[in-house]
Amino acid sequence: MSEPSRSVTAMQCRKNAATCGIFAVNAVSPPDRELLLRMQCSWLDRAEYQDLVDGLPPRPPTCSRALAVPRN
To answer: Smallest Cα–Cα separation from 15: which of 48, 37, 40?
Structure first.
């Protein structure tokens, strides 16, 4: 049986979260990095909420291949 299709809104939220993560890795100042990481979490929360609204089961956790963001 195939996985139910994800909503366009949830997919767009996850795409926005990925973009925020890329920007966070390349952020120059620590406050900018913190803001972008919070934005990334917010986009992911919104995507999960949209899945809930659409009646879809939660996505399994993913194994991140992202580099750790250094703390200055």
So the answer is: 40
